[in-house]
Amino acid sequence: MRPSILSLAISVCVAVTGVTTPASGQEGLGSTREEFEAKLGYQSGVIKLNNGLATLDLPPTFRYIGPEGSKRLLEKAWGNPPGAADGVLGMLVPSDISPLSDSGWAVVVTFDEDGYVDDKGAESIDYTKLLHEMQASTSEDNKRRAKEGYEAVTLVGWAEPPTYNPTTHKLYWAKELQFGDAPVHTLNYNVRVLGRRGVLVLNAVAGMPQLEEIRTSMTSVISFVEFGEGHKYTDYVPGTDKLATYGVAGLVAGVVAAKAGFFKLLLAGLLAAKKLIIIAFVAMSAFIRKWWAKFRGEEPAPPSA
Question: Which residues are paired to 272 by β-bridges?
Fold first, then answer.
């Protein structure tokens, strides 16, 4: 299915380039901005994802773009490499902002079918300790990146501390990141909805100055996304359905995000600087692998060439 954490880290190896995205001009669109946007296939109202896997009951503030439109937007407008949109179920974009504008942003929706994630012990997770471990691992990995000529990726901290609702089985958090010496820090806002056979993954990336706007919008997203009948968390059949090998802490650490190939997406095109950051997020995958191995009491496998 999707690339593993290790293969993803190996497959892409540059951090930041200074090429502007087509969203800053007309390159790559093959038409005017208006004509290109008209072909994205905006939808509103109640959206059924993947033959009833999940439902999005959109408020007027959001529009939905299906898989084909998402592929066009991610690859042709935002400059992602071919295949970057593989596995994307769709995207959510604000109704009042064009995704081609400098202030445009979106929520990318994917599904990771790793199995039922047991939320036992979620209430006792020390997220401050987890953050420190993630920061230490990032710092350690940056030393290697520096030797290889790549810019550092700094996990500044939580922009929104992790919160898990055991009743709705929804988890959300946000990280503040800095790439190199970039003056505008990056906001990575995450929502995870636990289901019977896996996790619905919703990710938004923007600049830190957009935190309040994104926070308000993502609060709305959390409320209108639900698994369909037969796919809900409560539909899980013990002993029959697959059980995931990680828990809520693993979700926050980034296991699903890395496996889902989210780091391949050029969502940095949403930043004010409009620079291509093709796999800056991939730098995070190394520490995810190390941390997860430590969490499970294993020795992390060395990367292969």
Answer: none
42-45 own/partner pairs: CB under 8 Å, 24+ apart: 42/69, 42/93, 44/95
Read off the DSSP letter of residue 158. Answer: E
User: pLDDT for 245-284, tens place per residue?
Assistant: 999 998 998 754 444 334 434 333 333 333 333 233 333 4
Q: What is the pTM of this model?
A: 0.78
Of the candidates 161, 145, 131, 166, which has an alpha carbon nearest to the alpha carbon of residue 281? 145
Strands 46-49 and 170-179, by their bridges, are unpaired
C-alpha–C-alpha distance, residues 21 and 23, integer Å: 5
Q: From CA 152, how far away is CA 145, in angstroms rounded?
A: 7
pLDDT at 5: 27
* Residue 303 near residue 6 (C-beta atoms within 8 A): yes
Write the DSSP assignment of 43-98 as a string of letters: B-SEEEETTTTEEEE--TTEEEE-HHHHHIIIIIIS-PPTTTTTT--EEEEETTS-
Q: State the average pLDDT for the chain.
A: 78
